[in-house]
């Protein structure tokens, strides 16, 4: 008996919902009818795809492999079913995930540009961590995601949008010794030798925290303090003298405006950065909304980077004191 698309849709619902009752409700059939379809699928595949447990179901090894293939087949089916529609300039509804460390700074400009470029594209935003975005994208619950590294996963298409470089941020007093030795750019080695206090980062489960610690491997490990829930929290803390942090350029202008005492230093070349990427399901390849979204995010990101460049370039005018000035003030 051949595998049917109905069976695959029911199997996908079961795998995602984790129970027969919730899956049956999602696909609008009775639980016994769903069980029959799953048993027929298992008979065709020659093994169990789920194991029944008291709390629901878990995928077997065969089930995990079959689920990956199911996602690809249903994506290609969706592509075929919408072949005519996607060539028309009709309204488009898409679910797009955005990194929580990027969304507050990027989204206002993206939504404004997107509305001007194509008012018929409606985006539902999901803001969360990188790992959660990848899971949602692979599971098919997101159409696209704006993330900070290429994935190289089967069934996904990717395009690089822009580079988001890191800036060293903190109070003027903490940055002054670094400016004395390096003027307007600091190397990791100089940072390691300087007595500038702790490095503050986001919680361990955030991908940006891992990137920051990776940049500062030479930092005294005992002085790396993780746990802040947002970049806004980090910048408020370092602006009050609690330590230093690494801030993406996309956040610099906004956080600088919110914390006037916040100052910046660039890193010496090659500057550490995160690469902002648009990843989307293969079924969306060639659809106009993907090109429009990619172009919009790129332009917005580049504008934020330009704003950051202006802010960092104005450091002397903003009164970042030289060490000798600090001594006089003391």
Structure notes:
The protein is an alpha/beta fold and 330 residues long. It has 13 helices and twelve strands. The chain has helices at residues 5-17, 20-26, 31-45, 61-81, 103-117, 130-138, 172-182, 188-193, 207-215, 231-239, 249-258, 288-313, 323-329; strands spanning 50-53, 56-59, 92-99, 121-128, 144-147, 156-170, 185-186, 199-202, 224-228, 245-248, 263-267, 273-281. It is elongated and about 75 Å long. It starts with a helix and ends with a helix.
Strand content: 15-25%
| Major beta sheet summary | 8 strands, mixed
Number of strands: 12
First and last CA, distance: 85 Å
Mean pLDDT: 81
| Helix content class | 40-55%
Principal-axis shape: elongated
Strand-pairing-aware structural class: alpha/beta
Low-confidence spans: pLDDT under 50, at least 5 residues? 314-330
Output the helix-strand order. HHHEEHEHEHEEHEHEHEHEHEEHH
Calculate Rg over CA atoms. Answer: 25 Å
Oligomerization = single chain
Q: Please work out how many helical segments DSSP would assign.
A: 13
